[in-house]
Design brief:
64% of the residues lie in helices and 0% in strands. By secondary structure, the chain is mainly alpha-helical.
Length: 115
């Protein structure tokens, strides 16, 4: 048990220092498409966009998340200071922005509902 705990402590320390954890994995045969620097820049840009996202609404919702997703969101809060509400709002906003057909579908089907 202490081995697992020390491994977890080591992982947390490396995350705080911004170093990726060391893994004993076999490198893949295919070369990476993006360089690590380019991926880091893209990720930093994403974090910046999330942090700059405005939480404009007043309505609150109760949502259910699986344990893995919730754990990841909590880790992101610790690692980057990004609140769960902000990342969920940003993600949903981006989803609806990239799928305008969903909004059109809802508008069309609301017209045909008999209330």
């Amino acid at each position: 048990m202490s081995g697992i705990k020390s491994l977890a402590d080591e992982l947390r320390d490396s995350m705080r220092k911004g170093k990726p954890p060391q893994a004993n994995e076999i490198p893949s045969a295919q070369p990476p498409k993006d360089t690590p620097k380019k991926k880091a820049e893209t990720l930093e840009r994403l974090f910046e966009n999330i942090l700059n996202h405005e939480l404009a609404g007043r309505e609150r919702l109760l949502i259910r998340l699986d344990d893995k997703t919730l754990f990841l969101l909590k880790q992101l809060k610790v690692a980057k200071g990004i609140d769960m509400t902000k990342i969920i709002s940003y993600s949903l906003h981006q989803f609806l922005k990239t799928h305008p057909e969903l909004t059109r579908y809802i508008k069309e089907h609301i017209k045909t509902l008999d209330l």
